[in-house]
Amino acid sequence: MSRILLHVCCAPCSTASVERLQEQGYEVVLFFSNSNIHPEEEYLRRLSQARRLAGIMHLELVEDEYDHGAWLTRVRGLEDEPERGRRCLKCFEHSLGRTAQAMKRLGLQGFTTTLSVSRHKSSPDLFAVGRFFEGFVEIDFKKRDGFARSIELSRQLDLYRQGYCGCEFSAR
Ligand code: SF4
């Protein structure tokens, strides 16, 4: 069984993604890297749900450091872009780049991301960014009703589901 690092955007999106990866025979290691989230209280709330899910599913969870300042630097000049615009591409680059680094540090061969579950994210855009990083595995988790399955599992597990993507510009 090959091990894969799964970038976790939030616990609800991870539910169906983990299920799909396990169906495909992967051993999943979770990686929570979300410096895009603002404010920090919201970041901690989503992190606590990821920890809960890791416990329920008996999975290892690796936690990245939270550095919203570095993320703001990355998206500087793109603050007024709409959701699904150029700011989001930079945001993907930030989180996927950190996941690629973590994959190497942990001695794993591949990584992917839960971001493709969401109906609000363009999978082709996500994959175009992911291809810049060695080890990126393209999996479109929204296929085969992945998004609906993530909602169903989140309800069953009583997971907190956020009302906005994550950054202050998406909350606006
Ligand atoms: S809207 Fe979401 S994907 Fe886009 S920049 Fe903000 S947090 Fe990142």
Strand order of the largest sheet: 3-2-1-4
User: How large is the share of residues in beta strands?
Assistant: 5-15%
Specify the CATH architecture: 3-Layer(aba) Sandwich
Cα separation of the termini: 43 Å
For the sheet with most strands, the description reads: 4 strands, parallel
CATH class: Alpha Beta
Number of strands: 4
Mean pLDDT: 97
What structural category arises from helix and sheet content?
A: alpha/beta
Small-molecule binders here are: iron/sulfur cluster
CATH superfamily, by name, is: HUPs
Shape: globular
What does this protein look like?
By secondary structure, the protein is α/β, with parallel strands linked by helices. The protein has one domain (3-171): 3-Layer(aba) Sandwich (Rossmann fold). Helices cover 48% and strands 11% of the residues. The protein contains 7 helices and 4 strands. The chain has helices spanning 11-23, 40-57, 68-74, 86-105, 123-130, 146-157, 168-171, and strands spanning 3-8, 27-32, 60-63, 111-113. It has a 4-stranded parallel beta sheet, sandwiched between helices. The chain starts with a strand and ends with a helix. The mean pLDDT is 97. Residues 36, 83, 87-88, 91, 165-167, 169-170 line the site of iron/sulfur cluster.
List the helices and strands and how they pair.
Layout: E1 3-8, H1 11-23, E2 27-32, H2 40-57, E3 60-63, H3 68-74, H4 86-105, E4 111-113, H5 123-130, H6 146-157, H7 168-171
Parallel strand pairs: 1-2, 1-4, 2-3
Helix pairs in contact: 1-2, 1-6, 4-5
Bound molecules: iron/sulfur cluster.
Iron/sulfur cluster (SF4) is lined by residues 36, 83, 87-88, 91, 165-167, 169-170.
